[in-house]
Amino acid sequence: MGARRTELGGRTGLGGWTGLGGLRPRRPATTILLCTLLLLSFVAEAAAQVAGVTAIRFGRHEDRTRIVVDVDRDVAFSAHALDAPARLVIDLPEVAWNVAVTPQSRPRGLARALRYGRMEPGRARIVVDLTEPVEIVGRQMLEPRGGVAHWRIVVDIRARNDGRTTNDGRAGNDASAAAAARAHAETVQRRAEEIARERAAREAARRAAVAALPAPPTRPPPPAVAPAPA
Q: Can you give the pTM of this predicted structure?
């Protein structure tokens, strides 16, 4: 009987070992959490690399209308006037739209409506619908100064009365204006290429970091249960 009890105890012990489910590898929640946090960190980093548009304002100065785009950092931009319908187009790299509404947000002067948004990855656009065809008579990027803490894209337009305009919105065929337009286009292109390279580098770093994460543990096969003694 003593031997019998020992065998039964052994069987009970096997049964108890089989029931130790708490010692088996759990669901890889930790790995999932690490992957999620890693992805969120890359999203936050990418957002931090994107300029933010904080306001779009309109002003009127004699025969000119001024459009001011407030941004939180220096960005490359291009501006050109189009006909049929008359509109002003300002192209930007990808930005975050945090546009505040103020009394100056209402289009006035030669501007009658405003719309903006993302064109494609890495590219955004502001479109100002106009009351009539215009020419661009000034455009510049103003750095923070005089108590203003943000950068400002400033574009001045006026009604066109000679029936001619170049691609960048300047009247006539002035060679210096064309050269300035080409130089600005090259600057925009270089900046777009830099943004693309930065995005590719971040994506490569993200993939490498994900690949370096430990593989989730595999569940071992269930142990064989010894037959009950006769």
A: 0.55
